């Protein structure tokens, strides 16, 4: 994830997520805290790192929308392992597309985690389309010149 143009807080959130350090409900339960384990974004299953970022229907709709915008049409993986392998496969190299996807992945993780926290602690929510627009606007304002060369070719 080197040479990533994402915001530092997004890179940090991504690092925590990739190392299994985010305080998801399943981790908090292992520490002895008692709480509702249902994931707040889709209300369909228990909240785990794997479910939160790869298996949840809300997360899948967000990733599909971002993939569509970046013109990287890939099959949506069913598991976290498949999702992570897909990310690793597409992020190799120093091409403009790889740099775009690095930034997009970090911002995807961050906005999804922030939306989860907003729903838990503030009771507010947004649709996946609003999160996708946020990631795209961050891209337009924060991408490096090499990556910004893709902008005329990408539409939201």
- H-E order: HHHHHHHH
- Find the count of extended strands (DSSP E, 2+ residues): 0
DSSP helix count? 8
| Rg, alpha carbons | 15 Å
Helix content: 55-70%
- Round the mean pLDDT to the nearest integer and report it: 85
Largest sheet: none
Query: Which class do the helix and strand fractions yield?
Result: mainly alpha
Walk me through this protein's architecture:
The protein is globular and about 50 Å long. Helix 1 (8-18) crosses helix 6 (96-121), helix 4 runs parallel beside helix 7 (128-142) and helix 6 (96-121) crosses helix 7 (128-142). It has 156 residues and is an all-alpha fold. It is built from eight helices and no strands.
Task: Briefly say what this structure is.
The protein is an all-alpha fold and 156 residues long. It is built from 8 helices and no strands.
Note the topology.
Blueprint (H helix, E strand, L loop, with lengths): L7 H11 L6 H6 L18 H7 L1 H13 L10 H11 L5 H26 L6 H15 L2 H4 L8
Helix pairs in contact: 1-6, 4-7, 6-7
Comma- or semicolon-separated keywords:
60% helix; 0% strand; 8 helices; 156 residues; mainly alpha
